[in-house]
């Protein structure tokens, strides 16, 4: 499971870099519009995941600002890592 989470975080980081690069130096054609739409969707979904993270784990783990940033950056892959941490703790 750790391998899957690590690979998922790497792919997510690559997606962030690609979408960020598109904001600075837009690609030609429709790909720019698609990447901007994906960026907006990613921002919304990761914000929702932060709310889920807060509701699920605030009583079980001491949460710091970096934990929230980690979930915002890597989404479900961070949630899986924190879930594993809670399970190991119990």
From TrEMBL:
Pfam families for the chain: DUF1145
InterPro entries, per the entry: DUF1145 (IPR009525)
Transmembrane segments: 6-24, 31-53, 65-82
Keywords assigned: Membrane, Transmembrane, Transmembrane helix
PANTHER family on file: INNER MEMBRANE PROTEIN, INNER MEMBRANE PROTEIN-RELATED
Protein name, as recorded: DUF1145 domain-containing protein
Organism whose genome encodes this protein: Shewanella woodyi (strain ATCC 51908 / MS32)
């Amino acid at each position: 499971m750790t391998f899957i989470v690590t690979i998922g975080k790497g792919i997510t980081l690559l997606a962030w870099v690609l979408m960020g690069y598109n904001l600075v130096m837009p690609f030609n054609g429709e790909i720019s519009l698609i990447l901007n739409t994906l960026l907006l969707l990613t921002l919304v979904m990761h914000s929702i995941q932060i709310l889920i993270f807060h509701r699920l784990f605030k009583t079980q783990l001491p949460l710091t600002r970096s934990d929230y940033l980690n979930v915002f950056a890597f989404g479900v892959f961070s949630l899986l890592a924190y879930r594993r941490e809670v399970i190991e703790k119990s």
